[in-house]
Write a structure and sequence with these properties.
It is built from ten helices and eleven strands. The chain has helices at about 5-25, 45-60, 75-85, 105-110, 125-130, 140-150, 170-180, 200-205, 255, 270-290, and strands spanning about 1-5, 35-40, 60-70, 90-95, 160-165, 185-190, 205-210, 230, 235-240, 245-250, 265. Helix 2 (about 45-60) links the parallel strand 2 and strand 3 (about 60-70). The relative contact order is 0.16. It has two domains: about 30-115, Leucine Dehydrogenase, chain A, domain 1 (Rossmann fold); about 140-270, NAD(P)-binding Rossmann-like Domain (Rossmann fold).
Length: about 290
């Protein structure tokens, strides 16, 4: 059983990006600049955005954090987005989700300039991805594809089951893995809360991408020997034996599933770090596109 180590792979990627940034600097070219908008005080979002800022520093990017209060109006946020769209020094930016209830997230994502949409969520970029045209890929699916490629996990002709149909992970993964690309050419099934006989479907899968947000949902008796497991979920589970009072769990019961898996991502340290690395890669691409 091989651990798909997202922490190590993301650090390798950051080192590669840092070399590219140093080269740009030596040639007198623009240094990539990533901005992030954070609305409110959601703990997980704050942690995630702070790690993005640190990652920018590590690779030599310029970074800007726009921290807005919880009671920010939709109009105020749209004005901030418009300012970033017009700012020629900003190559790419993200609006951290989730947003407070008074703000329509879809309207916000639509307002982002597709050329600066390094999260890959704008319909223009989603459409380009679907048509297999050059574009920004959503960071989490992009990171999963990179992990599979770097660990030489064979996908061509394989039976892939994606659990979860979100626009952020499930749907993009199903599209990317079915396309003609080095990591692709798979036969993909999307499953979700209404799927019947899920266990029968997962038992036939060569590769499973679990992205449904339910802690330890996928168990060892639901998979076959030699399966590849990509665990996208991360949930805080109450655990009084831990100093913090909780532990982090994925959508996969690691203990039982890892006994059968050929490849598996851990939680934490699997998909999560890759998401940030690919966001940086998209920002570098955005900067290169503007050269």
């Amino acid at each position: 059983m091989t651990i798909l180590d997202g922490k190590k792979t993301s650090n390798d990627l950051k080192d590669e990006i840092a070399i590219e940034v140093a080269k740009r600097k030596s040639e007198g070219k623009k240094i990539p600049h990533l901005a992030a908008i954070l609305v409110g005080t959601d703990g997980a979002s704050m942690t995630y955005v702070n790690s993005k800022v640190k990652s920018c520093e590590k690779v030599g990017f310029n970074s800007t954090l726009i921290d807005l209060p919880e009671d920010t109006t939709e109009e105020q946020l749209l004005n901030e987005i418009e300012d970033l769209n017009k700012d020629k020094d900003i190559d790419g930016f993200i609006v951290q989700l989730p947003l407070p209830k008074q703000i329509d997230a879809q309207k916000v994502l639509m307002a982002v300039d597709p050329n600066k949409d390094v999260d890959g969520f704008h319909p223009v970029n989603v459409g380009k991805m679907t048509l297999d045209l050059p574009t920004f890929l959503p960071a989490t699916p992009y990171g999963i594809m990179e992990l599979l490629e770097r660990y030489k996990v064979e996908t061509s002709g394989k039976n892939v089951v994606v659990i979860g149909r979100s626009h952020i992970v499930g749907r993009p993964m199903s599209i990317l893995l079915s396309q003609k690309r080095p990591v692709g050419n798979a036969t993909v099934t999307i499953t979700h809360s209404r799927t019947k006989n899920l266990e029968k479907i997962t038992k036939e899968a060569d590769i499973i991408v679990a992205a449904l947000g339910k802690a330890e949902f996928l168990t060892g008796d639901m998979v076959k020997e030699g399966v590849t497991i990509i665990d996208v979920g991360i949930t805080r589970v109450k655990d009084d034996s831990k100093r913090r009072g909780y532990r982090l769990a994925g959508d996969v019961d690691f203990e039982s599933v890892s006994k059968k898996a050929a490849f598996i991502t851990p939680v934490p340290g699997g998909v999560g770090p890759m998401t940030i690395a690919m966001l940086l890669k998209n920002t570098l691409l955005a900067c290169e596109n503007r050269d």
